[in-house]
Amino acid sequence: MVAMTPFEATSLAISARGKCISLYEPHKKVSSDSEPFVIPNLPDEIKMTRMQLPDLPFSFYELEPAYADYYRKLLERKAWHIGRASLYNRDNAEEKEQRGNEISIDQNGCLKWLDSKKPGLIVYVCFGTLTNLSDSQLMEIALGLEALGQQFIWVVRESKNKEEWLPEEFEKRMEGRGLITRGWAPQLLILDHEAVRGIVTHRGWNSTLEGVSAGVPMVTWPVSSEQFYNEKLVTDVLKVGVSVGVQNCVRLKGDSIKREAIENAVTKIMVGDEAEEMRDRAKTFAKMVRQAVKREDPLTLISIL
Predict the structure, then answer these.
(1) Domain with 38 in it
(2) Is the pLDDT of residue 11 over 50?
(3) What Pfam families does the record tag this protein with (predicted)?
(4) Are 284 and 249 within one domain?
C-alpha cells in the first residue's frame, strides 16, 4: 500500500496506463519509435508512441470514473479521491494568489487588468516553473499570439539575461491586448476569472486539474513525464481540449512548434461551435469538482492506493 499525497500529482488514468504498458508491453510490438500502438485493456482506446512514453492519484471519481473502477476491479487496488485540493480553501484569495510561491505581479494589479476585459476573451499561456523552452520556441509563441489577434496573459520564466527572443517592440504593440509577466503569477485567480476563456499549458497534473476545475478549454503542450498521458485524458477522454501537436518527449525543452500550429490550436478552443462544445463540457466537469468538494465526504480528503 502506497500513500499518495498532492505532491505526487498524477491521475488514476495515468497509473492504469502505466500498469498496462508494464504488463502487456505494447511498445515492444511496433517497428519504430514513431509508430502508434494501442494500450490494451483500458476503458478507452488510447494510442501512444515510444517517443511519448514517460518515466514510469490525485483526482476525483467524477473526472475519470472508468479508470477509478478499472483501478479497483481489474488492478485490485483501492482509491479514495481528493479532487482539486485548493477548492477546500476556495474563499481564501490570498492562498489562491500565493499557492506557496512568491508571485511576480500583485493580486490587485492582475485582477484590475482582467476586470477591464469583457468575459470570455482571454487566453492564459503558462508552462509551469520547470519547463525551459528555447528562445526560438518562445519567439514562435509570441508571433503566434500576435497573429492570432486574441487577448492574452502570458507567463514566462524570469531571466537575468536580455530577452533576445522577444520580437522587436512586441510588448509595445501588445499593450492593452496582452499582459506578459515574468516569474510566478496567481494562476488560480487567473483561471477562475470570468474574462479567461482558455489555457495553453504543458499539461502537468496540477494544471490539468486546475483547468478542469475552472471550466476552461485547454490547448495541450506536453513536454515530458506523465504529460502526454494527461494530454490524452484531456483531448480523447474528457474532450475539453485540443493538442498543439507535440510528438516527442523532450526533457524540459519541448518540441518545436510553429506559430501557425499555435494560432490554429488556440483558435479551436476560443472560437466556433467546437469551442463552445468543449467549453460546455469543461463547465460540466467544473461543477462536478465543486460538488465533490462540497459533499465533504471524509473519503475525499485523502488519496490512498
Answers:
(1) 3-81+294-304
(2) yes
(3) UDPGT
(4) yes
Coil/strand/helix, residue 154? strand
Q: What is the dihedral of CA 221, 209, 225, 219, to 10 degrees?
A: -10
Per-residue pLDDT of 137-157, as tens digits, reads: 999 999 999 999 899 999 988
Residue 12 in this model has a pLDDT that exceeds 60: yes
pLDDT in tens, 166-211: 898 999 999 989 998 887 788 888 999 999 999 999 878 888 888 8
Residue 32: inside a domain: yes
Cell numbers linked to 119: 468575459
| Residue-wise burial string across 228-245, b where 16 or more C-beta atoms lie within 10 A, e elsewhere | bbbbbbbbebbebbbbbe
CATH number of the structural domain spanning residue 127: 3.40.50.2000
- Average pLDDT rounded to a whole number, residues 103-109: 58
- Is residue 218 located within the same domain as residue 274? yes
Amino acid at position 232, single letter:
K
63 and 173 belong to one structural domain? no
Strands of 139-226, DSSP E = 151-156, 178-182, 196-201, 218-220
Residue 9 domain flag: yes
All cell numbers assigned to 22: 508494464
Element (H or E) spanning 171, and its range? Answer: helix 170-173
* Cα(136)–Cα(158) distance, integer angstroms: 17
57, 4 Cβ separation under 8 angstroms: yes
First to last CA, the chain: 6
- Residue 78 predicted with pLDDT over 50: yes
3-state SS, residue 166? coil
Total count of domains within the chain = 2
Q: Long-range pairs for 69-76 at CB < 8 Å and ≥24 separation?
A: 69/43, 70/12, 70/16, 70/42, 70/43, 71/12, 71/15, 71/16, 71/305, 74/41, 75/16, 75/19
Handedness of CA 250, 252, 257, 262 (dihedral sign): positive
**158 in the same domain as 22:** no
Is 88 inside a domain boundary?
A: no
